[in-house]
UniProtKB/TrEMBL annotation:
Protein name: polynucleotide adenylyltransferase
Native source organism of the sequence: Anabas testudineus (Climbing perch)
Lineage top rank: taxon: Eukaryota
Keywords: Cytoplasm, Magnesium, Metal-binding, Transferase
Record bears the keyword Magnesium: yes
GO-annotated biological processes: RNA 3'-end processing
Domain (Poly(A) RNA polymerase mitochondrial-like central palm) ranges: 153-286
Annotated region described as Disordered, given as residue ranges: 53-75
Gene Ontology molecular function, alphabetical: metal ion binding; poly(A) RNA polymerase activity
Family classification: Belongs to the DNA polymerase type-B-like family. GLD2 subfamily.
Chain segments annotated as transmembrane: none
Amino acid sequence: MYPRSAAPRGWPPYSNGLYPPPTVPRYYDYNHKSLAGVNSSYVPRLQRLPPYEWKPTPSTSRVPPPYTPAMTNGRKRQYDEYSPHVVKRQRLGSPVTCPPPPCFPNQMVAGSSRSPLPRFDRAHPTPQSHFHPQMLTLPESSNSLQAYAKDKLSDQMVELFEACQQQACDLKRKEVCRAQLQLDIQRVYAGARLYLTGSSMNGLGCRSSDADLCLVLKGKRRNDPINVLSALQRLFKSLSYVERTQLIRAKVPILRFREKGSDLQFDLNVNNTVGIRNTFLLRSYADADLRIRPMILVVKKWARHHQINDASKGTLSSYTLVLMVLHYLQTLKEPVVPSLQRDYPECFNPFMDIDIVPEGPKHIPPYKSTNQSSLGDLFRGFLRYYATDFRWDKQVISVREARALPKINSQEWRNKYICVEEPFERNNVARAVHEKAKFDAIKAQFAESCRILQERKDLNSILPVRAVINKESSRK
């Protein structure tokens, strides 16, 4: 349940410059503590991201206090009417001048030697291009994933997670490139702001995860994404630290490129601000329970190994897989997580200014689940749910509602093999699965892996753990 008397849950620490400061007159410490054992993301031997403090300038804008509904933790799966209402309006906030946070010279730095930090451009301080050093910090509590790793399968999942999850130095490397790109882009689009989004920021990334970027352009004039990305492609060809630019004309057009001399790939979109919103929504879920990060990482590695995790080839995107995992964890008899959007709508208001989107989730109290299942039991349950229980032909996966909704005869869901609702725009994020052969292959893989894992209870029987770890560590 959500205790009303609980102290506000601590938003995970961030590095300076990843997002612009909010326009609310408060002091925010994104490293404050939460209830013991509920939201600690500490895993032994891994470094944490540094504390990130925002000291915004005064303004009259503020986030309303969240509505706190009563909630029970023993509900069963529900199947209710699907509401087709779609919210797509996005507000683009204006930049706010904010001085860089203080440095902490006595802290241990785990930085990257690949390139120096870019200069701080005071003419365009939002998002800031000054990056705060990464630090090695001690855990805030003694709670760890070991409490959920009492069997061989669970222990293998923890091992894979520890070896593959994104480190502070990985995030710093992406931020260094983002900051320099913003400075160069501002030579063409003076008011542009560049945001790091996706798995790099939501806490669900691997060391080898690509970096997603959202370029926000203000003004009354509507900017055609293809024209903007074409201009950027010409610009990027003149940059010494960028190579292999490729314009991809998808439903959401992107400019794909790499950091020169490395495997680090970036996907840049224009004004797709829903990506900023769902980044912080997923970050909130990632922090709700210690098991969510390793569970999602293992599922993504499993799906990638079996070639069902590539939307460009007609299978499941990583975002779709994340929502599928969260849906399963929400709909257990004893849920691991609730619907944060339903229970705290003001914290994830789709009309909230982009600049204060990171502020909303800190109002959410800790969630302590009565479900104490091991990681291995949850993973096997996940495979079994989609292999035997979920009705692909009749149901829509909704993390927003924490339940499976019945399909209705609308264009969004009609004749779709897999239906997974985007939590903000409420469209189908699994639309890439449009061939029956691919859909059948996905279902067959869930069933086969479920059968094998049930018999052997060994992660290596469906995923070569050591090979995956070696591949992850070989990326440059």
